[in-house]
Amino acid sequence: MSRAEPLIRNISDTALLTAVYRARETERPDALFRDPLAQRLAGERGERIAAGIPFSDHHTWSWVTRTYLFDQFIAEQLRLGLNMVVNLAAGLDTRPYRMALPASLTWIEVDLPGLLSYKEEVLGSEKPACSLERVRLDLSDAGARRELFGTLGRRAGRTLVITEGLIIYFTADEVGSLARDLAAAPGFQRWVFDLVSPGLLKVLQRKMGPQLERGGSPLKFGPREGPEFFLPHGWRPLDVRSMCRTTQRLERLRLWMRLLGLLPDPKELPGPRPWGGVCLFAKSGG
Questions:
Q1: Rounded CA gap, 151 and 110, in Å?
Q2: What total of structural domains would you count in the chain?
Q3: Sheet order of strands, 188-196 included
Q4: Whole-prediction pTM
Q5: Which domain holds residue 61?
Q6: Spatial CA neighbour of 174 closest among 88, 240, 93
Q7: What is the pLDDT of residue 255?
Q8: Residue 190 · residue 219 · CB < 8 Å
Q9: Mean pLDDT by 10 residues, the chain (286 residues)
Q10: Residues ≥6 apart with Cβ < 8 Å to 262
Q11: Whole-angstrom distance, CA of residue 19 vs CA of residue 14
């Protein structure tokens, strides 16, 4: 990286950061998951980004737990008869390669052209466990995404949408619009995403925001309503799992942080309190 170049150049660079923490987890003897492709995808630049954001580097547990919880929700939905996964802003996710997925499953990755091209170049001849398709699309293009959602929504009877590390970069209006577009797609029945409270959003904006803002990727979304934000937009909560409580249960929290595991669930959560979780939602009426 040149001295004039920002640590994070654009939102795609955050995918390198996520891959770094998956790679580190893979090296642990007690790893919650193993991703043998993560180190290759993260590369030297990913390590430099992690080293340049000490707050993020000191809270590896949150990145790892988020990945773990998404894995758990996906596996549970597969057992219930899921036949398609649509991964929006898929980044450098490698679940089609590292998870035990049925060959009959169709997995769709949607992300920016440059990021998906980099991913394909690095992964080369690696073979996914299921049918894998990639769609190059800017999700901020509402017309294009609605067309895509409509097409995909008619292809499968039971589709799970996942948006890992995405909606925090959207405004509340943008999240509401995305939720309504997803709800309009016929086969999109379940949605898994991560969510933060206003209190945690402020912490992240203070500790990580400057680097992200210089790359044009400010953190924006932490609704005071918590999961209930999505009710008017066509989705209802089925399961909400606290990342801190999960990490505490997995005995990964440092001693001084274990009190965070006692924080209340989102429905009881005042805005100023820091909280982050992963949520499973169902389409209203579905």
A1: 13
A2: 1
A3: 131-136, 106-111, 84-88, 159-163, 188-196, 276-283, 235-242
A4: 0.93
A5: 13-283
A6: 88
A7: 46
A8: no
A9: 73 94 96 97 95 86 95 97 96 98 97 97 96 97 97 91 97 98 96 96 92 92 94 97 88 58 54 87 89
A10: none
A11: 9
Distance of CA 249 to the CA centre of its chain: 21
Please check whether residue 217 is in contact with residue 8, taking contact to mean a CB–CB distance below 8 angstroms. yes
Q: Give the span between the Cα atoms of 161 and 146, in whole angstroms.
A: 14
In a domain, 104, yes or no: yes
Single-letter residue type at 16: L
Match 């060959």 to its residue by tokens: 103
Written as six digits, the tokens of 92 are 């450098």
Within 10 angstroms of residue 55's Cβ, the number of other Cβ atoms is 12
And the tokens for 269? 């959560």
Return d(Cα 157, Cα 159) in angstroms, integer.
6
Q: Which residues pair with 236 in a beta bridge?
A: 282
Residue 172, amino acid: A
Report yes or no on 4 lying in a domain: no
Rounded to whole angstroms, the Cα distance separating 45 from 63 reads 18
How does DSSP classify residue 233?
A: G
Of 32, 184, 30, 50, give the one whose Cα is nearest residue 98.
32
Q: Which residues contact 111 (CB under 8 A, 6 or more apart)?
A: 12, 88, 89, 90, 91, 134, 136, 137
Q: Residue 2 domain-assigned? A: no
SS3 assignment, position 188: strand
- Give the separation between CA 92 and CA 111, rounded to whole angstroms: 10
- Domain CATH for 144: 3.40.50.150
Two tokens at 250?
């997995």
Coil, strand or helix at 170: coil
Residue 249: per-residue pLDDT: 86
Phi-psi map region of 216: left, alpha, beta (phi>0 left; psi -120 to 50 alpha): left
Q: Are 135 and 148 in contact (CB under 8 A)?
A: yes
The pair of three-digit structure tokens given for residue 254, joined into one six-digit string: 């440092």
Asked, for residue 209, whether it belongs to a domain, the answer is yes
